[in-house]
Design brief:
It is built from 14 helices and 17 strands. It is an alpha/beta fold. The strands form three sheets. The protein has a seven-stranded mixed beta sheet. The radius of gyration is 22 Å and the shape is globular. The N terminus is likely disordered.
């Protein structure tokens, strides 16, 4: 275990006039990680009636804290405006649902879960994960701020509370439902502007001998593989293991194990417990990952400073490929309308001059347009009707799944393209 005494205090430092400060340790943020210019909110899709209206754009400027090394965006938009009604439904990704099922089976077997236990998921979306625990006869509760996706979970019989999670919410949930034996959240930690309140809430809701797990994209992979498109306003923070361990330690929670996952271009799954619960020893995987990050300079500024030039080079290469194909008379369609895709489209200036349209399995998005770039979002069946030469896969982390679903494009010589970590024709 890391020396908790060396973790930064959560007491805010005095920032320079006009300078943002770190959402974890309060230190002034003076160093740019990458500046992607101005961009709209990535999950706010544009209806046809809104095409003639002005659209708000916000700075997409990520900075790194020189004290705790948390990479982060400022909070320009309140979470209510982002997540009150959300366009992302997890169940539309078959591979993600399968990933959730494997997690549930692993947790059941590793921690001997049964009917007497209760699992609480923060940001439970449409019940894509809790449905598996429910089928095992384990009690579940979802906490989901987006009413429209929580309603989909309720239809599956999964009890859900439409509320943002924090310390006050955790106290109310514990009083009503009791403590959580398993407390989990997948790809939610990055979405939290008030990081300390969120983790303090986990401390409150977790049972004395309970286990928490969190999954989130690993900053190490983001840097190594030019994953700049995973930076968008809905993602407030970007975590290394080094930093996330400090965050949880500051709230009396010990990370006793960690797994490296292939999801979302490379993620971490952390396992935590109360500091007072000494039954579960810290594994060698924790020590090995911490050492690897330190050897790579995670606690030094130099590695973060290189990222901007990597991003610029990636943008040039993407545009060079698209220009070459369009000049050759090729047609290109997009696949997907994910958050990461909208960062890439807006930063690179890719509109209908390059992509004729994009498609998405989520009918919630059909008939709308991508934010900022105004590319029409259609149903996947349109691919077979229009027969594009290239299918430009925006959710590149799901490329294998999409290539399998759309293998028929090869009937007319169509090819798949992924933009990250570099342009690649599959």
């Amino acid at each position: 275990m890391a020396d908790v005494s060396s973790a930064p205090s959560t007491t805010a430092a005095e920032p320079a006039p006009g300078s943002p400060s770190c959402r974890f340790c309060g230190h002034p943020l003076a160093t740019t990680f990458v500046d992607l210019g101005l961009s709209p909110l990535c999950q706010t899709h544009i209806s046809e009636a809104q095409l003639g209206e002005m659209e708000p754009f916000y700075p997409l400027h990520a900075r790194v804290c020189s004290r705790c090394f948390l990479v982060q965006l400022e909070e320009f938009v309140a979470p209510d405006d982002i997540f009150g009604e959300y366009a992302y439904f997890s169940s539309y990704s078959d591979s993600w649902v399968a990933h959730a099922r494997r997690y549930c089976e692993m947790m059941r077997d590793r921690f001997s879960l049964g009917a007497k236990h209760r699992v609480v998921e923060i940001a439970s979306n449409d019940g894509y994960l809790l449905q598996h625990f429910m089928d095992m006869g384990i009690g579940v509760l979802g906490v989901e701020p987006a009413a429209n996706v929580a309603a989909a979970a309720e239809k599956k019989g999964i009890p859900s509370r439409v509320v943002f999670f924090g310390e006050q919410t955790a106290r109310a949930l514990r009083a009503e439902f009791g403590p959580a034996d398993i407390l989990l959240g997948n790809n939610v930690l990055a979405h939290v502007p008030n990081l300390n309140d969120f983790v303090a809430g986990m401390k409150v809701l977790l049972a004395d001998d309970g286990v928490l797990t969190m999954e989130f994209p690993h900053l190490e992979r983001l840097i190594a593989e030019n994953q700049f498109d995973t930076i968008y306003h809905e993602h407030f923070s970007y975590f290394s293991y080094y930093t996330v361990e400090q965050v949880f330690a500051a709230h009396g929670l010990v990370l006793f194990d960690v797994e490296e996952l292939p999801t979302h271009g490379g993620s971490l799954r952390i396992f935590g417990r109360h500091a007072e619960d000494t039954e579960r020893a810290v594994t060698n995987r924790v020590e090995a990952l911490r050492r690897r990050e330190l050897d790579a300079g995670v606690n030094q500024m130099e590695p973060y400073g290189r990222f901007t030039e990597q991003v610029k080079a990636t943008k040039r290469n993407i545009l060079a490929f698209l220009i070459e194909q369009k000049q050759a008379g090729k047609t290109i369609a997009g696949y997907g309308a994910p958050g990461k895709g909208n960062t890439l489209l807006n930063y690179c200036g890719i509109r209908t001059d390059f992509l004729d349209f994009t498609v998405d399995r989520n009918p919630y998005k059909h008939g709308n347009y991508t934010p900022g770039t105004r590319i029409p979002i259609l149903a996947p069946e349109v691919i077979a009707e229009r027969r594009p030469d290239y299918l430009f896969i925006l959710p590149w982390n799901l490329a294998d799944e999409i290539a399998e679903q759309c293998a028929y494009i090869r009937d007319w010589g169509g090819q798949f393209v992924t933009p990250i970590p570099a342009v690649r024709v599959l």
